[in-house]
Amino acid sequence: MPLFEIFDPKAKPRPIGIDLGTTNSLVAYVRDGRPVCITDCNGAALLPSVVFYGDQGVVVGEPAQREAASHPRDTIVSVKRFMGRGADDPETRRLGPYAFAGPEEAPNRRVVHFKVGRETVTPVEVSAEILRALRDLVRDELNAVGPVVITVPAYFDDAQRQATKDAGRLAGLEVLRLLNEPTAAALAYGLGKRAEGTFLVYDLGGGTFDVTVLRLEDGVFQVKSTGGDSALGGDDFDRTIAEELLSRANLSENKADPRVVRTALDAARAVKHALTDVESAEWVMDERRGTLTRVELEALVKPVVDRTIPAVRRALRDAEIEASELDGVILVGGATRTPLVRRVVRELLGKEPLADIDPDQVVALGAAVQADLLAGEQLKEAGEDVLLLDVVPLSLGIETMGGVVDKIIPRNTGVPTGARSTFTTYADNQTGFEIHVVQGERELAQDNRSLARFTLRGIPPMPAGLARLEVTFKVDADGLLKVHARETTTGKEQSIDVKPTYGLTDEEMENMLIDALDHGEDDLLARRLAEGRTEGERVLLATRKSIAAAGGMLPDEERVRIEKAIDKLAAAIAGSDPDRVRTATEDLDRATTPLAERRMNAAIAQAIGGRSLDEVAEEVEAARGVDSHVEEHQHGRANRGQGE
Amino acid sequence: MPADPFERLGIPRRFAIDRREAEEKHLALSRALHPDKQVGASPPERRAALSLAIEVNEAWRVVRDPIKRAEAILQLSGLEGEVGETREPKPSGGFLMEVMESREALEEARASKERAAVEAVVVSAKKQREDVEGELASRLDAALALPEVERLPALRATIPLLGRLRYAARLLSEANTARDEIDGF
User: Fold this and answer.
1) Residue A93 has what pLDDT?
2) Do A377 and B33 touch (CB under 8 A)?
């Protein structure tokens, strides 16, 4: 796309919803008020999430799938299961045809590396290829690609979410939001049908299982609880069936041969699909064949389906609701087509589940709705008054003495959220403090997912228990965690390097971005300028609107200062120096911060009291700013932690 | 915890909250502050809204939870130095006996690996929690309504009930965990 199109204000690119699935991926957008999926030239909405790394370059989708049988190692299927995983993850040891780079070959052990052809690639890069293919699909249909919402399993942990967002960025997309898949599905159902009540979404996809209980009322989608298993899905049906087929074909010995494994997995999938509608079907594996009945298939996959039951029970309990009180059950994900799954859900919840929106498409459709709503907000257009209130799926905590986890944010806490904990030194004259952030429900740190480790250094020598280390967690609306730590005894703020346990560092991301561009550094400069301009334009628009709405909240002197900063930024955008654009944006940011805080405090007073903005403006004028309040809030929290 | 979670949500400071009212305030504040509603705002507005949205959600978490709510009321009433597990007085002998009995019942049920046995402990822990919560509600709110000179001692006298509520809640959560284990978690 030529650069000038980005800046043409009349060509507003459409906001896009993306379901980046384990087996298939889809894109959708809102056309004439209704979400629709974009289809390829053959009319197919599903893009197989398959990437083939061949001698001629990278191939994605159907053509890549055709290569899977002949090039099982170079064709990555179900990459989503490896997102945010470490090179030593159990997932890498399951039945599958891939070659993983060992410690001596992988640039870093913190992420999985697939060996494809002569190179190694990370799951983030593989996913970015799928996203680029989807982006091209959108371009063919709509000429331009707007900001996107990408869905993730609700049960995805922080590392898996961050990896997904990185993939979006690597594919050159503006990611507005990561949206939980069951919430997306509820959005598609709720808005389409104007439903109200409490619903349970049972989402069994290719590689992930989510269960979410949410309440729909008055345009508010409030998630009450969520649970699941981010390594459980239709793929596991296929593996179980494949093992059985291999044994029936007397090929169990050949499990090390990637070609045999790929053929078995494909045969398993084919016979599974066939048995959705008939009682008995034939399986074919090269020259060997046989018959599998639905009864036999169900006996094979029943243990896998049963693994979803405890998560459903716990989600109901966390939501403080009985199954009989549910107003409906929504099925999402291709694996819920399996008749056994429907039977199990019906028996467990005592309700006939809803599946009237295509379970393969419903998530993408919901994502498109959310993208459209958010972009509407971005332009401050009057839109439907919809609000999604989601939760943290897994508790966040810090490892303390003895390897025990101190839970800082419990699961099912509404996002955005934050918490602060204070820790202290346990040895005399201790000058460094290692902090290990984990996610999960288990008591011991080693049984949970490790998210990050960092060391706070330069603590002044003092007796044990005297130093105060304050760790702040913030979880944003994407479910992404940010951790800050500081030592409060000396009052000195310290910047720390947070190394994700299973993720890419900023530097690695930057290098990948450069590699992804055709002409390296020059393009990066152009891209930075383009991004800076887009952001600058957006800030200008937002600032002008907030000045216009400020009324009595903005003293003349401050207004003049802001207007000067506006002029400077407008001039910088007209120029071509990305650094100047950035500096001017930062200056405008500083100039408008006091006004922003006054406006938000006014908004709060209005929301609580139902009063008009003018009424509260005067009170707010005299009131202290957000900063002083936040400061106080911080001290109020500093009462937990080790040694207290 | 925000300085005053009740103030943050714009609801009266008391234990027996009007849940519907609190929920509505939380929603109204979320509509104004949630990041989804601030996509078009300038970065400083987004930051200010985010930090307030976090406070509102934290306030809601405190107000919604009976134990945290009681703690907040006592702390805000001038008893901050006396509230918290390590600061509160040790439970009485009679209550300790009760605790030991219910713990034994849970251990037996857990050892039996019978879902129904664990379920029975869950039900009884739930009942216990409800009873204590009801008593705490009436005593706390009655204390809050007293003239200033009598208020503090009356509030202080509710602290042992808070301790009992904690025990009941912990028993319930352990019983739930035991049931999860039987269910294969």
Assistant:
1) 82
2) no
pLDDT of residue A610: 63
Strand order across the beta sheet in which A449-456 lies:
A405-409, A396-399, A433-439, A449-456, A499-500
Selecting from B34, B48, B57 the residue whose C-beta is nearest the C-beta of A600 gives: B48
Written as six digits, the tokens of B174 are 């352990």
CA distance B88 to chain A (A): 14
CB spacing of B57 vs A607 below 8 angstroms: no
Interface test with chain A among B20, B27, B29, B36, by most A beta carbons within 10 Å? B36
Q: In what order do the strands lie in the sheet with A197-204?
A: A328-332, A197-204, A209-217, A220-229, A387-389
- Residue ranges of chain A whose pLDDT lies below 50: 1-9, 616, 620-644
- A518 is annotated as an active-site residue: no
**Residue B79 included in any domain:** no
CATH of the domain at B174: 1.20.1280.20
Residue of A125, A166, A181, A360 marked catalytic: A181
The Cα A588–Cα A567 span in angstroms is 10
The CA-based angle A274-A279-A285, given to 5 degrees, is 45
Kindly list the residues from chain A whose CB atom is less than 8 angstroms away from the CB atom of residue B48.
593, 596-597, 599-600, 626
A19: annotated active-site residue:
yes
User: How large a percentage of chain B has pLDDT more than 90?
Assistant: 74
Q: Are B69 and B22 in contact (CB under 8 A)?
A: no
**A176, A387, A609 member nearest B39 (Cβ):** A176
Tell me how far CA of residue A218 lies from CA of A190, A195, A196, A382, A604, in angstroms: 10, 9, 8, 17, 20
A428-460 core/surface letters (b: 16 or more CB in 10 A; e: else) = eebeebebbbbbbbeeebeebbbbbebebeebe
B55 and B15 belong to one structural domain: yes
Task: Please tell me the least confidently modeled range out of A385-399, B80-94, B155-169.
Answer: B80-94
The nearest CA of chain B is from the CA of A283 a distance in Å of 33
- CB < 8 Å to B3, chain A: 629, 632-633, 636
Q: What angle do CA A562, A563, A566 make, to 5 degrees?
A: 90
Please tell me the pTM assigned to this model.
0.89
Q: Does domain A234-305 have CATH number 3.90.640.10?
A: yes
Domain membership of residue B75 (yes or no) is no
Q: Which of A587, A608, A613 to mutate to test the interface with B (most CBs of B within 10 A)?
A: A608
Count of domains observed in chain B? 2
Give the number of other CB atoms < 10 A from CB of residue B7: 14
Q: List pLDDT tens digits, range A337-361.
A: 999 999 999 999 999 998 889 999 9
Choosing from A125, A129, A166, A203, the catalytic residue is A203
In angstroms, the CA A114 to CA A119 distance is: 8
Q: What is the DSSP letter of A328?
A: E
Q: Is A568 a catalytic residue?
A: no
Residues of chain A with CATH 2.60.34.10: 396-503
Per-residue confidence (pLDDT) for residue A49, from 0 to 100: 97
Predicted local confidence at residue A625, as pLDDT: 40
Nearest-Cα distance to chain A for B182, in Å, is 10
Tell me, what's the pLDDT at A219?
86
Q: Do B86 and A644 touch (CB under 8 A)?
A: yes
Q: Please compute the mean of the pLDDT values over residues B119-140 and round it to a whole number.
A: 94
Task: Name the residue among A417, A542, A606 with its Cβ closest to that of B41.
Answer: A542
Q: Do B29 and A608 touch (CB under 8 A)?
A: yes
Q: Are B120 and B177 in the same domain?
A: yes
Q: Which CATH class is domain A3-192+360-382?
A: alpha beta
Per CATH, which fold does A396-503 belong to? Substrate Binding Domain Of DNAk; Chain A, domain 1 (2.60.34)
CATH code assigned to A517-631: 1.20.1270.10
CATH code: domain of residue B29 = 1.10.287.110
Domain that holds residue B120: 93-182
> Does residue B173 belong to any structural domain of this protein?
yes
In this predicted model, what pLDDT tens digit does every residue of A441-491 receive, in sequence order? 888 999 999 998 888 888 888 888 888 888 888 899 999 998 888 887 776
Residue B74 located in a structural domain: no
Q: How does pLDDT run across A596-640, given as a tens digit for each residue? A: 999 999 989 988 886 555 554 555 444 434 333 333 333 333 333
What is the count of residue pairs from A and B with beta carbons less than 8 Å apart? 139
